[in-house]
Amino acid sequence: MGTLYLVRHGQASFGAANYDQLSQRGHEQAVRLGAYWRERGQRFDAVLTGTLHRHAQTLAGIAEGLGGAPEAHALPGLNEYDSEALIRAIHPEPLPRPDTPERYRQHFRLLCDALAQWMGGTISPQGMPDWERFAGGVRAALDLVRRQHVGQNVLLVSSGGPISAAVGHVLGTAPEVTIALNMRIRNSAVTEFSVSPKRLMLQTFNTLPHLDTPEHRSWITHA
Fold first, then answer.
1. Backbone phi, then psi, for 136, in 5-degree steps?
2. Alpha-carbon gap, residue 221 to 185, rounded angstroms
3. I want to staple 152 with a disulfide (CB 3.0 to 4.6 A). Which of 2, 67, 71, 199 is the partner?
4. Is the pLDDT of residue 91 over 80?
5. In sequence order, what are the beta bridge partners of 49?
6. Known binder of ligand: residue 54?
7. How many CB atoms lie within 10 A of CB 209?
8. Mind listing the pLDDT tens digit for each residue in 97-110?
9. What are the beta bridge partners of residue 7?
10. Alpha-carbon distance 50 to 77, whole Å?
11. Which domains are delineated in the chain?
12. How large is the C-alpha radius of gyration of the chain?
């Protein structure tokens, strides 16, 4: 039986004009994760990622700390949803940049509301697939692992939306639970599935063993 390690990207550039870039802290989180695995002799037989810059940058950091990794298979089905398009679908008026605690909370309240409506099929955000197609891309990646990588260790680098969709699919959770899981996944966190030909089973969720030391606990971030 193999193991699929799903990693959320390191801290990106929340509130900036281009979110899809790791911050310096995000790069450090990724390198630290790779170093943690190298110290424990962890190796991967295959790597899957989305096609976003923050996914590639996170994988590069992990490989730097790990001392190398197999060439990645990039899958658009592992890309994140467009949070700005989701919010615009329910709040068309311009919003100020989420640069205060209250604006930050407002952003995520709106996002959770929009996610629920998108998953329920009541809104169709511009430029985005419907929920079933989005979730289908995630399921296709999981099926690929189950078909081709039984007995292997597979690294999958993606975002909170696809990872929570994967967990929701494996556990059969209701949409509101999937959204709650999404909101709790931390940067560079690791979720593990055991892999057999017939099914995937959740082993761990949203863990940060590489940051569980006094000198690294301040590196824990969520956005």
1. -65, -35
2. 9
3. 2
4. yes
5. 74, 157
6. yes
7. 13
8. 888 889 889 999 99
9. 157, 190
10. 7
11. 2-80+129-219 (3.40.50.1240), 82-127 (no CATH)
12. 17
**pLDDT mean across residues, the chain:** 95
List residues bridging with 46 in a β-sheet. 154
Residues facing residue 2 across a β-bridge? 195
Q: What interhelical angle do 175-184 and 160-171 show, nearest 10?
A: 140
State which H helix or E strand residue 171 sits in: helix 160-171
Q: Could you give the CA distance from residue 193 to residue 206 in angstroms, rounded to a whole number?
A: 12
Cα-based distances in Å from 96 to 1, 20, 61, 147: 49, 19, 32, 46
Q: Does residue 55 have a pLDDT over 90?
A: yes
Q: Evaluate if residue 204 carries a pLDDT over 70.
A: yes
> What are the backbone dihedrals phi and psi of residue 43, each rounded to the nearest 5 degrees, phi first?
-135, 155
Beta bridge partners of 202: 193
CA distances from 52 to 20, 55, 86, 146, 183 (A): 7, 5, 18, 24, 20
For residue 77 the two structure tokens come to 């089905």
**C-beta neighbour count of 194 within 10 angstroms:** 13
Written as one letter, the residue type at 89 is: A
* pLDDT tens figures, 158-184: 999 999 999 999 999 999 999 999 999
**Amino acid identity, position 177:** V
On whether the CB atoms of residues 161 and 12 are closer than 8 A, the answer is no
DSSP designation for 86: H
